[in-house]
Amino acid sequence: MSEKRGIPSPQAPLRVLDQAGEAQFFETVLRCVADGVFTVDTEWRITSFNRAAERITGVPVEKAIGKRCSEVFHSDLCEHACPIRETLDTGSEVIDRAARILNRQGGSVPISVSSAILRSEDGTLLGAVETFRDLSTLEQLRREIKSQWTFEDIIGKSEAFQKIFAILPDIADSESTVLIEGPSGSGKELIARATHNLSPRKKGPYVVVNCGTLPPNLFESELFGYLKGAFTDAKKDKPGRITLAEGGTLFLDEIGDLPPETQVKLLRLLQEREYHPLGSVDTHKADVRVVAATNRDLSSLVSQGKFRDDLYFRLAVVRLSIPPLSDRRQDIPFLIDHFIQRFNRRRGKRIQGVTPAVMEVLMRHPLPGNVRELENIIEYCFVLCRNGFIDVRHLPDDLNPEAETAEAPVSPGPMAPLQESEADTIRRILASNEGNRARTAEDLRISRTTLWRKMKKHGIAFHP
Amino acid sequence: MRVAIPRMGETVAPCFEYCATMAIFDVAESGVVDQVDFPLQSREPFDRVRLLRDQEVDTVICGGIQAFYEDLLKASGLQVISWVEGTVDDLLALFIRGELVAGTELPLDCGPDFFPMKRMTEH
Prior knowledge:
Chain A is an alpha/beta fold. Chain A is built from 21 helices and 16 strands. Chain B has a single domain, classed as Nucleotidyltransferase, domain 5 (2-Layer Sandwich). In chain B, a hairpin with a 2-residue loop joins β1 and β2. The longest helix of chain B is centred in the middle third of the chain and has 10 residues.
């Protein structure tokens, strides 16, 4: 019908092709599709392998041809649920089976697989065809929404991280309280979430309490909950965070900011594993694993008398110290690569990496905001860089040596001594607080808004 | 020396993380002196790392492995020879001769004459 209107039907081009032309036709089609496609003979040896299959597996076609498919795919289905085996055994198609493969970079790639039998015109069995779709982007978005991070998301090749990795299997398997120490932006919450996601409690809830933002007078009711009538506004029962975390993990973030009056209440919970909701006469058992994190040096707070030593020892059963990124610069290239891959998936771009000049700038930058700052820098570069490699012109102005040169002539001139002194003080306090603006404002006894205004006035960079 | 090889039948398993059997060999200069196959029920890779540590394994010879778990094994003090292909016997023989390196790809039909190796069963 379509041919009558002058539009060729889908079969029309094949009618005019000879065997060689037909082969080239299919090769072109397979080269252009985004899904991986390969065929095997009856011995599971690969006979064709398209370009998308090369990209997803990281294996070039010349290495793949002739190999058994399990040697190329390294899939979780290979041993017990091979779709090709099922197809060859039963003659039926397998559609959209979820699987994971390992690519040659050692990464785990989520895919969906379909397979079908291949026969010649006379019905002779030739083998099977398998198509597979890369689901990395979908999985990344799902994990970001649900925060389902695992230890596999932690990037660290430095000695400090290798030491942490060596004890991870034991930490994940235990019920012990964990204290994670490290500067802002170093990935404490990632480790806390991964500890939960790999523990026997992973099916239970993961509840976060930010001790730094919870007012002391609300701490008890938030943590332990209350019963109707416990106080004037208690119109109905409210479960506390401990109840919400029952059977799971309670993550106490910024534990170093916990006021002294609330430290004792938390100590009782950790000692007795029991608590009383406000207004209740019954004792409740707390079936939670506690993971705490702080960007402060808790042991020095203990020696200053600002943090209870008994609470510190209860928390630090297992103690993990994450060094600042400036102390593990060898991790920076791996982190850059990780963020580029993540933003490529999130933004649908194909940025290949950073130029050597950018790498040098980032390796020299003090990175007071740690991994989070590096992530923000790469995210900024993704706004300006369309494809290819991230160059110095894509960097934020405070990191861009070219921008400094260009801006020099329009500089308002040297600062007045008083202003210079103010700028120096802000920089110094900011550095001592590892870029934390809230604590800097507190130390300077000015509001955060005033600090922000002064930083802007003096051109002090806004690191995260 | 104890050597672990995740196996799929006679060949090295395609994935360390998903293999169903972990073969652990006691190896002397003369060859393999003992062998135990551990069936693995758990799909949790950390359980495999714990098993290898508990069994005091020195070296892991494996096919595909996630970079994270390779780092984890190395951080636990194990030697890892990864991304190899071939039969367990051939790979083990090459290892005993000190010639096995990461990425080695052996054809499946080397034959017994290619890598003569004394096995426990031959004693």
